[in-house]
Amino acid sequence: MSILITLGNINQFTFANSIVAANEKAKELFSSTLYRVEIFHSKESFDILQKIKFQKKDENEVWIDHIEKTDINEDNLIHRTIEITSTKKSVEQFVNNIENILSDSKGKIQNIILDLTNGTTLSKNLLSIAAYVLEIPHQYMIDVGCLFKQTENRGFLDSKILKKCYVAAPDSAHFDNIAYLSLSEILRFRKIIESDSKRYEDIAEETVDTAFFKGNLIESIRLKLEGDQRKDNTVYRIAASSISSSAEDLISHLVDRFASDSNARMLGQKLGVIRAQIEKKAPSTFDIEFFRKFNDFVLYLRNSSTHKGKFLTDLEKFKADLAVKMAFPFIEFYTDIVFKILSENYSVLKPTRITELNEPFPESGKKMYYGLDGDDTGNVLEELFFSSKSETHFKKISESIKNAIAQIRNKVKKKAGNDSIVFEAGDDLLFTGEFTFKENYNISTSGLTCSIGYGNSFQEVYLALKQAKTTPGKNTIVGAKLST
Fold it and tell me: In the chain, which segments carry CATH 3.30.70.270?
């Protein structure tokens, strides 16, 4: 089943002729007539064409009569009225309608003809862009110059004449095949590069040459695309080496800004310096393992694709190509995520096992906030659901947790007063004072443990408790201090 997508027209002759011409093209391409005609009208074109249709006289042929001569009846026409302008809302509405048509076609884009004969310059431009992005291959229009040579008639035309003058529109994708320029692809990357360059400038502040950073990324993409066109593996290596210099320049600026005393010279060393900073400063929700593996992978790609011999195998070409592509998410990761963490003004102290504490911790005489949370209480409860056959175990665990919290609460109140308890619910406790921690919770709950975070403010307690809860084995106490 073939579909035509076209625009409305206040000129009924041109409008009808374009549909007839498209129907002839459908027969040629798909060996069948058009099954559906999707028409994007302006309010004006819809109103005028409808008025003409309803005012027709038997002696005068109108646009619907001319179309129906070619086995397309009115039931095949779907009218969509959209005022196409350059506004975001209008474009979104237009794109949504195009997507609906593609959805109805069950993804058979190759069976769609897109007609560029009708409509305003703006609407035709938008329709052409949509066709390029969606890779709709069949775009056609009536060549007026050809018509003038075929006939002097300016009304409804014979399908044989229209067929001769229904020509394919230039395929935008051909831009990608002009020598090795790949203009369309470069334009796609340029927006990404502009954004990356702005963030790079923000990070490195006054010490950067943004124009060189941006130009080097663009040149690297051009080289990569040249390799695509020429099938020259060595060009990929040059592109990989070029783009890696921009990525390393970014890392160097991060090291200079957040670890100025570092003597790191190689990229691997610099990444190690950044990793050490992140491991100290990242919140508990940050995936450290991903961070390490992502660094290792990108570093391996960079070294593997730039430090090789004269000849490249297909595998080495693939790795060099991948190194170029991975440079952009790598830069984005460091500018949008790593830089943000490095810029945060907190650090978390090293976790200390509660069972290892023999001295007051933190230092005696220091009034602070403390957050306590039982470890894996939910997991214990879940296990009881599957293993217990009576209520006894549930009650025993519940009472032991209540008793442990009660003992700690009473100890806190006794030492720091009734107002020292800030929050209490379940196995969670938030309090303030000066304390030494032992193993009260562990003993009272017959083996269950808890994690404790402390700091000078609620924000510090939150960060510290998060870190304690994510420390392997838990059962830890962690202090956090926001830097000034």
Answer: 352-482
